[in-house]
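Deviations from the work plan: none for this task. Representative record:
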Amino acid sequence: MRAGPTQEEIRRHNLGTLLRYVHVRGPTSRAELTASLGLNRSTIGALTADLAAAGLVTEELPRDHGRTGRPSLVVRPEHERVYAYAFTVEVDRLTAARVGLGGKVLDRREVPRPADVVAPLVEFIRETEASVPAGTTCVGSGVAVCAMARHDDGRVYLGDAAVLEEALAAGLGGALSESRTSAPPVTVRNVADLAALAEHTRGVATGCDNVIYLHGDAGIGGGIIAAGRAMTGHRGHGGEVGHMVVNPQGRACGCGSQGCWETEIGEYALLRAADRDGKGRQAVTDVVDAARRGDVVAQAAVRQVGRWLGFGVANLVNIINPEMVIFGGSLREVYLASAAQVRERLTRMALPACRQHVRLRTPDLGDDAPLFGAAELAFERLLADPLDAATS
Amino acid sequence: MRAGPTQEEIRRHNLGTLLRYVHVRGPTSRAELTASLGLNRSTIGALTADLAAAGLVTEELPRDHGRTGRPSLVVRPEHERVYAYAFTVEVDRLTAARVGLGGKVLDRREVPRPADVVAPLVEFIRETEASVPAGTTCVGSGVAVCAMARHDDGRVYLGDAAVLEEALAAGLGGALSESRTSAPPVTVRNVADLAALAEHTRGVATGCDNVIYLHGDAGIGGGIIAAGRAMTGHRGHGGEVGHMVVNPQGRACGCGSQGCWETEIGEYALLRAADRDGKGRQAVTDVVDAARRGDVVAQAAVRQVGRWLGFGVANLVNIINPEMVIFGGSLREVYLASAAQVRERLTRMALPACRQHVRLRTPDLGDDAPLFGAAELAFERLLADPLDAATS
């Protein structure tokens, strides 16, 4: 239990709230900020002045000022001067981007995932920093990884992922500190958690407070938002829905258990059911395309995986009662091709009260949802306390 | 997004924080309040004076004042003058209590559940109110029901439960308003949600922010606390873990699905496995006792149900990553008799990262956990805004 905030804490909170508003919604008039944030005009003016002095926003006259009278100044996030690095380390690709405040992608590169994932990301930072104009501020880096990441210290578990995470933090931190006195922080989190964050912040789940994002690749990950906040669990491992056992008579899973959801709906499950070799996203797309063209084996495979997809979604809907379930990664294609099977299972297995308001969706941000989420993760510290983070 | 609070909002927040502190922890010295709440002495003094003027706390000299110098006054919740009604409507019993601020049970009655559950509860209120001293304040009523309750409007779903809930609200509201100008509110919620709230507030899960409470009777309910708050889901139906399907080849469930967790671990499942007739809590206890005495059929039944109990717990541990799982209702006995099977399944099926810090426990508040939770629910409005609720 904690007592209420001090005046200075309130001011910092309000600075963060205002900056978050323009970061998420884009350039906004002072009049709209006054109405939306429930603060008076002079307070908005003072907060904006502080943020402008810190180089985080600019104010300008609206371009198209139709009414008579004094126009309300427009507050715009400084997306060219304030930025973060966002990276994704996925099963089959690496993505690196420099993202400006407001979520604008300034530089972007994507390569097939090599054995060493650290060197290309460090190289990206070095090259990008060399061309960044003077007077800019990097607030940090966020990394989305296909493995379990612990929230409190950002450490990644499973296999060699711990090694990866340490190397990433060291390599990225080193590259960033070359051009600065202190290295902005590097934070690592699970792909599904970050995709959920991105879709909740500026995607299909904007305004939805109870959301499950399912990310499919070789495995299945889940990012859960409950009452508007990431449901991270005790040590940040919440959302390992791929290891919910759905088929007690099923196949052995890499985790040591048997019949995990990902053994029934992961990429390998679809390819096995379709009697195909290959792996990765393209192989999944090929099966879905073949099913659309009338290949009966591919059609049966898609339906089978769709039924198991609906099975697990129904369980999660009963447990979590979400407003929206989002199908991302390779599950996007699988869901779109098997929506009938998914809905049939959901109707049969989920309680009416739990399922009656749930919406099934695909990501607005597409395959870049984890990348945008990594950027949001990097911006978190700035948005929580703008003046402190901007000057450190 | 909302701006920070006003001075008046902070004062109300601080009043609620102080009152909640003594409500949960009992009589507390001003010195401890000053240290724990991070407010200065004069603020604590002013807040306490406001609460005392509203009749919510008293201040007194400590009984055993060993040190020299001026003693720190002890702030004590007014448990005789400020109270709530708490009721549980369980499968086989009704419980009614008048609970004083601070969680002290002042009056209590328990009867086997009759067909009409409303009349006995209304009668309890009438009789109790007739003997309550003048100058007391009833802040509301909380009801724990074995059915799905929606949080936003307190409506109960499934079967005739909606009828029950309306009748409860009308009957209790009517009985309460007889002795007042306005009826204190009646709020209804699921047994498992309220047991979780009680154990989190003043039971085994105090200080744990990620908790799953499992309540067993004929069915299985779950109360989930994530990041310190009830995970209620989009419409308050979160936690319907009893309808997570664990056995696709399993039995038909009353919900229309097949192989739901409650068909494998509910009371009927244990009795069926033990080849016994009967129903209810006592029948479960009889099987567990028989197993302890060496009855091989009962032992096999307990082990079988224990394995399925561990199966579902493992799934929930992977999805939620709780710090603690609490086994309540009839699951208390089942868990205590089959802890080895539960742990074996948990070890085999849950990811090490998700399970390595989880503690398996039984309720500190025993079978009264839902009753204490119902009281906490009734006190919520008072603790959120003490002066407003106390005078309304």
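The domain at 7-77 of chain B is CATH 1.10.10.10 (Arc Repressor Mutant, subunit A).
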